[in-house]
């Protein structure tokens, strides 16, 4: 009884901590209308417009007359047909199988060819000798570490010469690529595969893939300091995700990283209500992160303000949990700032723990760090392990640390010397 009471009290506090705008905004970014904020049906562009509109509603200003910064890159997309059938049974994309991000297009009926683990590990086989009319089948089960890496590399090579079917027992995790193999590369769940294939059915596949040159946009919102200030604080979060894999399946990218955009909006609201005296603020929603940090790489080399005038950059990516606190990347590079963050947390008891981590090239702070801009990248820790899969939905976000973390970050910048 008491637990139930405490739980409902806890939830109502969380609701207060998160404004309606932040909630609706985060939910909307995860909706099918935004197509997984990727490269099919203009998903990332719709999201960019929506973020810019929200920046404007909050009262953030355009910078140099625009909320956008455009850049282009090639991307492999799966806009249409994406089918794997075992007998009459149509497998479900994202659940039973995925295609490799760099899968080529093609269709056919599966006739097997395969190689042993020796060839797959060493690559000592001329893969060009494989029959392009047969599917290369490999059970990639039970391998780890170096072996797994080598096998994956060689499967990618084989997809240049023949269609590939890789059977796995691990979680299906998708990504996005700027390249395409000559042939389809399908990754299938062992359970889905064995259930049906043991019945001696034929396997057919039809994969439509298309490389296109894509123009994406970083979204920028500016909030000047209440006094005239030279220095600027940047707060960033990538809004792109993986998009659609075939016409019917999309990856919502709730924790990664609609949640980070929610935190961006939450901080924008707070600083709009009460500005900083000594620092301008630049809120940036980056595009093209999942394909290789393209948006932040572009902005770090085409900065809308002088990089020397950036006092500090805070990157937010995966903000949807926090039951186990947060991790701070670059903590070891900026011990003074990290101590300040820790001290505020100790005093206010906002988070159960703040973990320290060294530099890592794992999100959009990276190219700014390389360019000499002091930066933290913060992500939440908790039981939500959905990552790059169709289960990373808005409904799975606990927002456990959201309100407290937002307060902690606000205090961190208000106390910035
Ligand atoms: Zn991310």
Describe the secondary structure blueprint for this structure:
Elements: H1 2-17, H2 20-30, H3 43-58, E1 68-77, E2 82-86, E3 89-90, E4 97-99, E5 106-109, E6 112-113, H4 117-122, E7 135-139, H5 145-158, E8 164-168, E9 185-189, H6 190-197, E10 203-207, E11 210-223, E12 232-238, H7 254-273, E13 280-286, H8 294-301, E14 310-316, E15 326-329, H9 335-348, E16 354-357, H10 366-370, E17 375-380, H11 402-414
Parallel strand pairs: 6-7, 7-8, 8-9, 12-13, 12-14, 14-17, 15-16
Antiparallel strand pairs: 1-11, 2-3, 2-10, 4-9, 5-10, 11-13, 15-17
Helix pairs in contact: 2-7, 7-11, 9-11
Zinc ion is lined by residues 238, 256-257, 289, 317.
Walk me through this protein's architecture:
It is a single chain. By secondary structure, this protein is α/β, with parallel strands linked by helices. The chain has two domains: 269 residues, Zn peptidases (Aminopeptidase), CATH 3.40.630; 127 residues, Glucose Oxidase, domain 1 (3-Layer(bba) Sandwich), CATH 3.50.30. The protein is 31% helix and 23% strand. The strands form three sheets. It has an eight-stranded mixed β-sheet, sandwiched between helices. A five-stranded mixed β-sheet has the order 4-9-8-7-6. The N terminus is likely disordered. The structure holds zinc ion. Zinc ion (ZN) binds next to helix 7. The site of zinc ion has 5 residues, from helix 7.
């Amino acid at each position: 009884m008491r637990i139930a009471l405490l739980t409902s009290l806890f939830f109502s506090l969380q609701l207060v901590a998160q404004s309606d705008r932040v909630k609706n905004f985060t939910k909307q970014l995860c909706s099918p209308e935004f197509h997984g904020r990727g490269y099919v049906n203009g998903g990332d562009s719709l999201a960019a417009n929506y973020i810019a509109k929200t920046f404007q509603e909050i009262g953030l200003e355009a910078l140099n007359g625009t909320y956008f910064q455009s850049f282009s890159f090639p991307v492999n997309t799966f806009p249409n047909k994406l089918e794997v059938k075992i007998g009459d049974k149509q497998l479900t994309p994202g659940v039973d199988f995925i295609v490799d991000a760099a899968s080529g297009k093609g269709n056919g009926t599966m006739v097997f060819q395969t190689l042993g683990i020796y060839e797959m590990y060493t690559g000592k086989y001329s893969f060009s000798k494989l029959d392009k009319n047969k599917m290369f089948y490999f059970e990639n089960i039970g391998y780890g570490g170096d072996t797994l890496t080598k096998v994956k590399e060689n499967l990618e090579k084989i997809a240049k010469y023949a269609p590939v079917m890789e059977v796995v027992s691990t979680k299906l995790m998708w990504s996005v690529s700027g390249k395409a193999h000559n042939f389809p590369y399908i990754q299938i769940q062992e359970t889905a595969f064995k259930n049906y294939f043991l019945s001696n059915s034929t396997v057919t596949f039809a994969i439509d893939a298309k490389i296109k040159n894509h123009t994406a946009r970083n979204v920028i919102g500016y909030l000047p300091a209440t006094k005239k200030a030279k220095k600027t604080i940047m707060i960033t979060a990538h809004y792109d995700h993986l998009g659609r894999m075939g016409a019917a399946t999309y990856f919502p990218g709730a924790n990664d990283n609609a949640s980070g955009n929610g935190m961006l909006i939450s901080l924008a609201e707070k600083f709009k209500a009460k500005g900083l005296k000594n620092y301008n603020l630049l809120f940036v929603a980056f595009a093209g992160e999942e394909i290789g940090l393209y948006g932040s790489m572009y902005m770090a080399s085409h900065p809308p303000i002088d990089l020397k005038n950036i006092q500090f950059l805070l990157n937010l990516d995966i903000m949807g949990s926090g039951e186990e606190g947060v991790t701070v990347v670059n903590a070891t590079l900026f011990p003074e700032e990290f101590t300040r963050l820790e001290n505020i947390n100790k005093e206010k008891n906002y988070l159960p723990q703040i973990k320290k981590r060294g530099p890592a090239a794992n999100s959009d702070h990276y190219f700014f760090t390389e360019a000499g801009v002091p930066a933290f990248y913060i992500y939440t820790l908790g039981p939500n392990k959905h990552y790059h899969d169709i289960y990373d939905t808005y409904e799975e976000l606990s927002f456990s640390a959201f309100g407290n973390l937002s307060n902690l970050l606000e205090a961190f910048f208000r106390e910035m010397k």
